[in-house]
Amino acid sequence: MTSTNVAAEVFAAAFSAEPTGFALGPGRANLIGEHTDYNLGFVLPFAIDRAAVAAFRPRADRQIRLATDFAPGVITSDLDHLEGAGGWSAYPLGVAWALGEFGADLHAATGFDLALHSDVPVGAGLSSSAAIESATVLALDAMWGLGLDRRTLARVGQRAENVVVGAPTGIMDQSASLLGEADSAVFLDCRSLQASAIPLGLDAAGLEILVIDTRVSHAHATGGYATRRAQCEEGARVLGATSLREVGVDDLDRAKSMLNDVVYRRVKHVVTENQRVLDTVATLRTSGPGQIGALLDASHVSMRDDFEISVPELDLAVETAVAAGALGARMTGGGFGGSAIALMPVERARDAQAAIAEAFGRAGFAEPVQFEVRAVAGARLL
Ligand code: GAF
To answer: Which GO terms describe its molecular function (predicted)?
Structure first.
């Protein structure tokens, strides 16, 4: 059964009616460029072939009803009580609220019924949250006849997440989900929000991207993510910059003399990661994906040692993938758990998965969930 059929069934079971439309929002994997987005730097993610599908139907009154197959019951709200939403409903209700900040007239708008089904694993670092946000924002854009452009829709999702969900995240995930193109990554300048599609050329090179979901779950509304963001802001402030985007690799010696060791290493990660994104884009353009492995490896080392957002399970996944033939591997997403990605020659992928599962068993870790991801087109109405 397709995800659309499942969403339609969830809708029918919850609301005893047929949906009038469907919107699909993909999750994302980040090829490279981690914790650079909120520092107004560069990222290179792609939309993946795992997505949330929203089945929806406008209502004549101002009520909102939400259902999903990943949580029981029907959640009822209305357009006058959006901001205090909690649990999973904070994502769709937060998007409705945030649209009010980007041009929707929430006093005149009508309510809606919306049912969600998603096959993006939750807590796996593949942005199940952006998948829900972009499916919902496209559904509401259609129901309310707003016609907002995709960059604005991405900002709506980010605003929902920052204010209603309470996670101080950047713009990368929503941009990947909304701007993705088939077989390409989204090269995004997070300062100007200029985006361009960079062909990955994986099939022609006999390569695939393997996701290794460690099943160590993470959340960005609490803990380390916010701390890292605050340390980056402190680094920029001490260096007299408005963001770390203004700090280059050439400034690192000066930064070392001005910052304490921890903040210096956070700054060093961001500054060198920005350069690695630029180098990866240039390498993809000139030489293809077979030459980017060392950049992926260096990114992981930087996150492990300088930004300190990896965990033993992610390090083992990366090391074992490389030992089993990956051209490069790195953790992807916000860190503290979630997934690693490995750039694998197709003919080595199956053996690598077995080697990774075995290594996890030997280490006493839970068995990881492993699957190939493909770069797909971004969110769309179905
Ligand atoms: C999470 C956030 F949502 C993104 O904005 C980004 O900061 C990422 O972590 C780290 O690169 O996915």
So the answer is: ATP binding; galactokinase activity; metal ion binding
